[in-house]
Structure prediction request, 464 residues.
Amino acid sequence: MWKSNQSYWLAWLFLSLSLAVGLYDQLNGSTDPSLFMPGPLSDGHHQFTDQCEICHAHPFDGSEAIEQRCVECHGETRVKPHDSHPKSKFDDPRNADLLAKIDASSCMTCHQEHKTAITLKDGFTQPVDFCAHCHANIGEERPSHADMAFSSCKDAGCHNFHNNRAIYTDFLIKHLDEKDLLDKRRVKAREFAGILEELMEYPHDDYPVEALTSDDADAPGQMNTDPHLQRSWAASSHAKSGVNCSACHSPDNSNSDWSDTVPYTVCQNCHHLEVERFQGGRHGMRWSAGLPDMPIREARLPMRQTALHQTVNCHSCHNAHDYDSQYAAVDACVQCHADQHTQAYEQSPHARLWAAERENSAPPGSGVSCATCHMPRIAFDMNDWASRIMVDHNQSANLSPNTKMARTVCLHCHGLDFTLKALADSQQILNNFATRPKPEEHPSMQLARRDHERYLREINANPP
Ligand code: HEC
Ligand code: HEC
Ligand code: HEC
Ligand code: HEC
Ligand code: HEC
Ligand code: HEC
Ligand code: HEC
Ligand code: HEC
Ligand code: HEC
Ligand code: HEC
Prediction:
């Protein structure tokens, strides 16, 4: 025992020293720190590869210090009601014996890094039937589950480990017998323009909310007469809401400091929530670590050849100066993404609905663009007393497990049974929902229906 321990410590020291030297050299710009990694990072974190400090604050840090880093970034979503197995569940002494089987109070039990061979979707590094450790008696507790394999618990829209907000029994019962297509089918409208007056942190003094025309443009000299600039800016919602040239090009309000380039920190002056959300997802996460924009050529997802020289920033989707958000919602995405799901979108019924909305032949909010699903309009708290419907710029937030999309997106237009079946079908994902899901009711809905019927029978037999 001592022998293997000893070699373990020697290996540790060697690795850690290498790490320390790696970091030191990195400061001198001479060595690539990823040479010292025991293996590549998971898909979720690969953009952090050159930044070991993100998880290893100090080369000699143990698991507890690393865990602290996980929680700093992910803690917000790992609590109730978003998480059905939060750490707090296992602080309960009655659950202590479960932890002896699998230590679910530590993230790294299930999400190791540098281990490609055992890393599954979502950076998960346990065998798929791991629910059995704690739910071995489920067949006795719920006879309906007796014949089910533990490897199937978290498949196909039945359960997730963390987020079960669209698939718990009461929710399923509430949504039984809904039509595939609801009668009213609309996503919510955006609210920024409407609440500008009430936003305390908005720079009203410099840029009062009022409609501007070409004549009001406050750029120095010749620029104000450039016809192309004039057309696109004057027609934009910026001009309509009083955002003049100087708001972006000389944000400290002196024309002598005019700059042709506009960093995202300028947008942040008025759109800080968008910038904050952007940094939590795979488009903007590099900014959160103080790194420059994500270069497309380093992407692991399939990208178009023509985009390889670009990076991701606000202007990847938003063109200066028209800021046309319909362009941003599909046309921009397909300039970069080239996977099968993306390419199939154009042929889907959703794309037809989107085309109708763009042509004004269907009402606003009735079309389904890439952004409708990936950047949904949801309520965010602006401060302690007010919230607004806002475009979520973290396009990873509702992606995985994909049932997170049910509440934020699909249920505005479809019934729950239809939604769960469509999201559970990998073929539907590949063809971007161009075909109908199977007619049979989703197994989770069937189970909920039986639960509900049993409850009604009991109530009828013994009225309260
Ligand atoms: C996203 C977080 C993350 C990043 C970024 C990261 N690591 Fe790790 N690393 C981990 C985790 C988690 C472990 C496993 C620790 C454990 O099980 O105690 C680990 C383990 C290691 C180990 C093995 C030593 C040990 O503690 O078992 C080395 C060496 C290592 N990392 C080097 C690196 C280097 C070098 C970089 C940067 C190029 C890097 N790591 C970047 C999360 C990360
Ligand atoms: C600096 C912030 C940061 C730290 C530290 C960090 N993460 Fe992440 N993590 C992210 C971001 C950003 C993503 C990508 C967006 C997403 O998938 O939510 C991500 C993705 C993930 C994913 C999803 C992986 C996938 O392939 O979809 C898991 C699981 C995860 N992190 C767990 C951890 C664990 C465990 C640790 C600690 C070892 C950790 N993270 C440390 C920011 C961080
Ligand atoms: C007992 C195993 C287990 C533990 C412990 C665990 N996870 Fe997970 N995690 C999973 C599984 C399984 C998934 C795949 C999606 C699902 O089933 O919810 C996942 C998915 C994720 C994701 C991507 C999807 C999402 O819901 O955001 C993140 C991020 C994540 N885990 C972070 C963490 C962090 C941070 C911790 C520690 C506080 C942690 N996990 C602890 C099993 C675990
Ligand atoms: C480390 C132990 C542990 C593991 C592993 C585990 N669970 Fe749980 N689970 C619990 C505990 C404890 C409860 C709370 C039991 C209670 O309140 O009756 C629970 C509750 C649940 C619930 C009840 C409803 C809810 O959302 O609160 C479901 C469903 C569930 N787990 C599914 C799963 C699935 C699926 C897996 C595998 C992907 C899994 N669990 C893995 C310990 C675990
Ligand atoms: C909402 C912010 C915003 C407003 C308002 C704005 N611009 Fe710009 N402008 C930009 C961005 C972003 C760029 C691209 C710069 C870059 O690549 O960093 C740009 C680029 C420019 C350039 C450089 C050449 C070019 O076309 O790329 C000029 C000149 C310019 N703007 C003039 C103007 C004038 C004149 C106005 C007012 C009529 C104006 N801008 C209003 C954000 C803005
Ligand atoms: C001085 C404040 C201010 C600055 C600086 C600013 N904006 Fe805006 N932005 C606004 C206002 C006000 C609106 C109008 C809201 C509306 O009509 O929806 C707006 C609207 C937008 C829209 C929605 C356009 C539409 O028609 O749907 C986008 C996209 C946008 N801004 C991006 C940016 C970017 C990117 C930057 C940085 C280059 C930036 N803004 C800088 C105040 C600002
Ligand atoms: C300038 C190029 C570019 C544009 C434009 C772009 N993306 Fe991306 N996208 C990326 C890159 C790079 C990644 C990260 C890939 C990686 O890490 O492997 C990504 C990742 C994603 C992911 C995966 C997130 C995850 O957590 O797994 C989704 C979904 C996505 N983009 C959707 C969109 C949508 C929708 C649009 C349009 C509204 C869009 N993208 C526009 C480059 C782009
Ligand atoms: C991946 C593409 C993409 C990127 C990158 C992107 N946006 Fe957007 N943004 C959109 C789309 C699409 C919409 C409109 C969606 C809608 O109407 O539902 C939008 C809307 C907005 C709005 C209007 C929001 C509202 O709720 O009224 C603002 C402001 C904005 N973006 C600012 C930014 C800023 C600042 C950045 C850089 C941090 C940025 N965007 C980066 C795609 C993007
Ligand atoms: C009706 C909703 C919907 C529409 C419309 C949609 N997607 Fe998706 N997309 C999804 C879902 C659901 C997933 C998650 C698949 C999974 O992992 O289960 C996904 C996954 C992705 C991914 C991640 C792929 C990966 O392998 O991780 C990218 C990138 C993406 N979509 C881009 C786009 C683009 C670009 C468009 C528009 C051309 C688009 N999507 C349109 C629902 C949609
Ligand atoms: C704004 C409303 C809206 C949203 C949001 C929406 N859909 Fe749809 N969807 C529709 C409409 C309307 C149709 C039927 C279009 C037609 O038949 O021309 C449709 C068609 C479909 C189809 C194909 C049905 C067929 O007959 O071929 C599938 C599958 C689907 N949607 C799944 C989803 C999923 C999954 C989500 C969420 C990720 C979603 N939809 C979000 C409105 C929406």
